[in-house]
Amino acid sequence: MIRAVYVIWLRELIRFWRERARILTSLLQPAVWLFIMGKGLGASFSGPMGIDYARFMFPGVIGMTVLFTSIFSGMSIIWDREFGFLKEILVAPVSRLSVVIGKALSGSTTAILQGSLVMLFGPILGIKLSFWVVGQVIGIMFLIALALSSIGILIAARMESFQSFQLIMNFVVMPMFFLSGAAFPLGNLPLWMKSLVTIDPLAYGVDALKGVILGFNEFPLVLDLTVVTATMLVAMVGAMVLFNREG
C-alpha cells in the first residue's frame, strides 16, 4: 500500500514539475490580488488592529492558492479515467484507499509548494515570517490542502467529463473562497451570511492562518484545526467509499 501511495504521489509531482506555466501562474495570480487589488482597495479599507488591506489579504491569498490547487487536483482523476490510466490502477492488486491517499497527498504537496511560493511576498508587504511561523503555516496549509484535495477527489470520483466537474466546481470553489474571510473581515457580516460561513471549512483554515501570521482570530485556533481535520476525514472516507464502487 505504501508503495502504491508513493507511486501515485510521485507521478503527480512529476506532472506538476513539467508544467512550468502552471508554476508561473501560481505566482502571478497571488501577486495580482496582493499588489493590485490589495493596494488599490487599501485606501478604503480599515482592517482589524489598523492593518492595511494588502497585509490583511496575505493569509487569505495563501488560502486561496491552496484552495484552487488542492480542489482542482481532483481533475487528474477525470483525466486518468478519460485515458484509461485509472482503470489500470483500479485493476492493480492495491487497495482503493491507497489511490485516494496517493491522490490526496499529491494534491496537498503541490498546494503546499505553491502556497510556500506565495509566502515569499510576505517580507515585501512588511510581514515578518520567522522560522517558527513558517513551520506553523506549512502545517496549517497541509491540513487545509488535505481536506480540500479530499473534497475534490470526492466530487471527481463519479464524474465522467471535465465539463461536469468544472460546472460543479464553480458552485463550490467561489462561494467557499468568498465566504472564507480571505477578502474581507467576517465580524460585520449579516446573520444569514455568518451562518453560511460556519459551514465553510476554508473559513476555519484561513482563520488559522490569520492567527499565526497576523495575530488575530475570528474563532479559537483549536476549533479551526478541529473543523479542518474533521472535514478531511469525512471527505476522504466518502471518496474511498465511492472508489470502492468504481467498476
Itemize the secondary structure elements and their pairings.
Blueprint: H1 2-18, H2 20-41, H3 53-71, H4 75-82, H5 85-90, H6 96-118, H7 131-156, H8 162-178, H9 191-197, H10 201-213, H11 221-244
Helix pairs in contact: 1-6, 2-3, 2-6, 3-6, 3-7, 3-10, 6-7, 6-11, 7-10, 7-11, 10-11
Report what the structure shows.
- The chain has 247 residues and is mainly α.
- The chain is 74% helix and 0% strand.
- The protein has helices at 2-18, 20-41, 53-71, 75-82, 85-90, 96-118, 131-156, 162-178, 191-197, 201-213, 221-244.
- The longest helix is centred in the middle third of the chain and has 26 residues, at 131-156.
- The radius of gyration is 18 Å and the shape is globular.
- The two termini are 20 Å apart.
- The mean pLDDT is 81.
On the 0 to 100 scale, the average pLDDT is 81
Give the CA-CA distance, first to last residue: 20 Å
Shape: globular
Number of helices, where a helix is a run of at least 4 consecutive DSSP H or I residues = 11
- Quick one: how many beta strands? 0
% residues in beta strands: under 5%
Describe the structure concisely for a colleague.
With 247 residues, the chain is mostly helical. The protein is built from eleven helices and no strands.
List keywords for this structure.
mainly alpha; 74% helix; 11 helices; 247 residues
